[in-house]
């Protein structure tokens, strides 16, 4: 079912103590705030996951920021989807533009990660988005469509139903430049259309599509009030519980 979701992505920030204190602050905010049915997700580094799951109270759920493309074995430094699920974690971000750009994650690798996540009953938060050059050359729709097709469209209808999409124009991540509400809506509507063409209208209508890229309390309301923007994937502003809830209460 299409849900409103605000997911914080801590990226490589917070020691274990800092992270658990932030979860406590998020719990305090969650208790005193009417989140109006918004699903709150916090994507922590791997080291926090098991304790964050114990600490987080409803409606806060925990996500990993990545998972291995392989099931198990001699892959030093990797963390499998099964290991992540064994901590009680329910969600995993896959295909973040930083993973694509800095760690060479191709569509082929991402396909395997998505399959691992689904096989281990995690909900993938799958990131798509163009770089500035793509947008300036009017290739942004094509790029996003290919990212969807190449890593997700092998999924059955049932498995696709577990996926949350996050549109993150790379030029807006951590730059303070946000896509305008119109640019976000235009792309989200396009994504829904591409999903409808591949699957059907019902599936397209039910998939949650989050916007990510310099979303802050000050601009969140305009973005989430767009018809096809179902929430946000928040980087910088998720590192402070008050800012994070400033976005959650924008609905
Ligand atoms: O995963 C989150 C996005 O990369 C957005 O990051 P940002 O809010 O710091 O721009």
From TrEMBL:
Q: Which domain of life is it from?
A: Bacteria
Q: Which reaction does it catalyse?
A: D-glyceraldehyde 3-phosphate = dihydroxyacetone phosphate
UniProt-listed InterPro entries:
Aldolase_TIM, TIM_sf, TrioseP_Isoase_bac/euk, Triosephosphate_isomerase, Triosephosphate_isomerase_AS
- The active site is formed by 96, 168
Enzyme class, top EC level, equals: isomerase
Keywords in alphabetical order: Cytoplasm, Gluconeogenesis, Glycolysis, Isomerase
Question: What are this entry's molecular-function GO terms?
Answer: triose-phosphate isomerase activity
List ligand-binding residues for substrate.
9-11, 174, 214, 235-236
**What EC number(s) is this enzyme filed under?**
5.3.1.1
Q: Offer one Pfam family short name for this entry.
A: TIM
Q: Where in the cell is it found?
A: Cytoplasm
Pathway where it operates: Carbohydrate degradation; glycolysis; D-glyceraldehyde 3-phosphate from glycerone phosphate: step 1/1; Carbohydrate biosynthesis; gluconeogenesis
Per the record, its GO cellular-component terms are: cytosol
Single biological process term from Gene Ontology: gluconeogenesis
NCBIfam families reported for this sequence:
tim
Subunit details: Homodimer.
**What is the annotated role of this protein in its UniProt record?**
Involved in the gluconeogenesis. Catalyzes stereospecifically the conversion of dihydroxyacetone phosphate (DHAP) to D-glyceraldehyde-3-phosphate (G3P).
Give the family this protein belongs to, as stated in its UniProt record. Belongs to the triosephosphate isomerase family.
Its recorded name reads Triosephosphate isomerase
User: What gene codes for this chain?
Assistant: tpiA
């Amino acid at each position: 079912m299409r849900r409103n979701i605000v997911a914080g992505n801590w990226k490589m920030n917070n020691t274990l103590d800092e992270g658990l204190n932030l979860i406590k602050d998020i719990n305090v905010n969650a208790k005193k705030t009417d989140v109006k049915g918004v699903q709150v997700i916090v994507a922590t580094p791997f080291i926090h996951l098991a304790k964050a799951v114990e600490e987080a109270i409803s409606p806060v759920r925990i996500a990993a920021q990545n998972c291995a493309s392989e099931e198990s074995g001699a892959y030093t430094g990797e963390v499998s989807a099964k290991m992540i699920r064994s901590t009680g974690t329910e969600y995993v971000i896959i295909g973040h533009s930083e993973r694509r750009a800095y760690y060479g994650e191709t569509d082929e690798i991402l396909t395997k990660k998505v399959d691992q996540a689904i096989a281990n009953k995690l909900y993938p938060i799958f990131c798509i988005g163009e770089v500035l050059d793509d947008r300036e050359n009017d290739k942004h729709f094509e790029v996003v469509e290919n990212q969807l097709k190449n890593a997700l469209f092998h999924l059955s209808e049932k498995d696709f139903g577990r996926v949350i999409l996050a549109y993150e124009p790379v030029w807006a991540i951590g730059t303070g430049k946000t896509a305008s509400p119109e640019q976000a809506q235009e792309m989200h509507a396009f994504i829904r259309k591409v999903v409808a063409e591949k699957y059907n209208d019902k599936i397209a209508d039910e998939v949650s599509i989050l916007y990510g890229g310099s979303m802050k309390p000050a601009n969140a309301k305009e973005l989430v009030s767009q018809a096809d923007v179902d929430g946000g994937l928040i980087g910088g502003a998720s590192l402070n519980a008050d800012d994070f809830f400033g976005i959650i209460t924008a609905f």
